[in-house]
Design a protein that fits this description.
It contains eleven helices and eleven strands. It is α/β, with parallel strands linked by helices and about 300 residues long. A hairpin with a 2-residue loop joins strand 1 and strand 2.
């Protein structure tokens, strides 16, 4: 700029207003500035460009050709600067588009997802909801980091430290079984009865992570007899309809399945512990308005489940 001091962002804002208003007086009044300052900014731009920018035409000022050409790029530049240093954009769910990308442990799908998706469709009708399961091969932490996922709903602790975690709810553990099972005629299930039963369980995430139920039992020096393991969580209730298998689950899952199938449940022995459910997201999305709103919706659904 002819060796002069570069114009500041504030001065560029003044210049844009000046180019649009074509008046030093109106620009000063609109921006609550004094006229000598506005005139100084115009002088600096004239010196930097070698162009008068504004010239008198009778009783008014008009833009030179160079001045006219400056307006569009100046608007674009200032829009970009405002996006960088200005306040973060607000999220309006009523006008939002795009996708909410959610990964969920399959044990949570029947518990949280129906209410969550209904809530999202009502509040953000223009946004599509994409849900995928979390299986052994899925790198959910990497997907969050690469912006391929927004949040993860899980029932395992010990998430990677670079992920943000919030506890959604802690649930009572119950035994779910079919109408032919001996437990159907008992008021309570003793630890001895529980350990002697034939158990059905989902396939473990890994050898190092057998799942929350077996981890709690191991801490007490106990081990149940798992006779059948299934990869698809939602097949489990149907497998309980005949035979002598028992499935250990959260109270809300058992309540839901018992409402659609002739299944029964009883509280599991205390040694089975409780089931804790978590919401995970990446640090990179911590302050993002869209992600924050989505997390609030998941937590609101979890609060409703706690009150059931």
């Amino acid at each position: 700029m002819n060796g002069g001091k570069p114009l500041t962002t504030r001065e560029f804002h003044v210049l844009l207003h000046l180019l649009e208003e074509r008046s030093v007086t109106r620009t000063a009044e609109a921006l609550d500035l004094n006229q000598p300052y506005v005139s100084l900014v115009l002088k600096r731009l004239r010196e930097a460009t070698g162009d008068p920018i504004l010239v008198r035409s009778g009783a008014k000022l008009v833009l030179t050709v160079r001045g006219e050409q400056m307006i569009a790029p100046l608007r674009d530049v200032l829009k970009g600067v405002d996006a960088i240093v200005g306040p973060p954009a607000q999220f309006d769910p009523t006008t939002a588009t795009g996708e909410f990308r959610i990964a969920s442990a399959d044990c949570m799908e029947a518990i949280i997802l129906p209410s969550l998706i209904a809530r999202l469709q009502s509040a953000a009708p223009g946004v599509r909801v994409v849900v995928r399961a979390v299986d052994q091969a899925f790198d959910y932490a990497g997907a969050l980091e690469r912006d391929e996922l927004d949040v993860v709903i899980s029932n395992w602790p010990g998430a990677p430290q670079h992920l943000k975690t919030a506890r959604l709810l802690s649930e009572e553990v119950v035994c779910l079984f079919g109408p032919e099972h001996p437990f159907a005629g008992q008021e309570r299930i003793t630890l001895q009865d529980y350990l002697a039963a034939d158990h059905l369980a989902p396939v473990a995430r890994s050898k190092a992570d057998p799942g929350p139920i077996d981890s709690h039992l191991a801490e007490a020096g106990l081990k149940r007899d798992i006779r059948v393991m299934l990869p698809e969580f939602n097949l489990i209730p149907h497998m309980l309809m005949k035979g002598q298998l028992v499935f250990t689950s959260s109270a809300n899952f058992a309540r839901y399945q018992s409402s659609i199938l002739p299944l029964s449940s009883r509280p599991a022995p205390a040694e089975c512990g409780s089931l804790d459910f978590y919401l995970l997201w990446h640090e990179r999305a911590q302050a993002d308005a869209r992600n924050t709103w989505l997390r609030q919706q998941v937590m609101a659904v979890a609060r409703e489940l706690k009150s059931i």
